[in-house]
């Protein structure tokens, strides 16, 4: 049996690529939700901050996709771009429904990502 040091117990190993994408998606959902709530409370500074954070995450996710990986990869790029556009429109037009739509879309993507069976979480599957 392998012994683990106190450091290894205190700082578990870094998540795999699937876990990182999952964490980013859930954080984007959270930020998008915060933006909608801030907009409803007329806290425009907080709304801007939350939208910028969500957009940065979407940009990172979009940049990580290999477009040559096929149709699924291209669809994900489209969905990330669309969600970002809806966040921007919601902020500019002070439209909570646009932000809510982006939040729902991101939540669906995050849910689908989390539902991928472990045996299909290979590096090849992540490229899509």
TrEMBL record:
Signal peptide: none
Entry keyword DNA damage: no
Keyword Chaperone: yes
Location within or outside the cell: Cytoplasm, Cytosol
Identification of the protein by name: Flagellar protein FliS
Record-linked Pfam families: FliS
Primary location: cytoplasm
Similarity comment: Belongs to the FliS family.
Keywords: Bacterial flagellum biogenesis, Cell projection, Chaperone, Cilium, Cytoplasm, Flagellum
């Amino acid at each position: 049996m392998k012994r683990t040091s106190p450091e290894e117990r205190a700082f578990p190993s870094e998540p795999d690529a699937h876990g990182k994408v999952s964490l980013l998606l859930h954080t984007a959902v959270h930020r998008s939700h915060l933006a909608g709530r801030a907009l409803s409370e007329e806290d425009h500074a907080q709304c801007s901050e939350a939208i910028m954070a969500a957009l940065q995450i979407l940009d990172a996710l979009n940049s990580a996709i290999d477009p040559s990986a096929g149709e699924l990869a291209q669809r994900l790029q489209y969905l990330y771009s669309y969600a970002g556009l809806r966040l921007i429109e919601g902020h500019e037009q002070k439209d909570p429904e646009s932000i809510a739509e982006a939040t729902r879309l991101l939540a669906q993507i995050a849910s689908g990502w989390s539902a991928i069976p472990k045996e299909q979480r290979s590096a090849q599957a992540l490229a899509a």
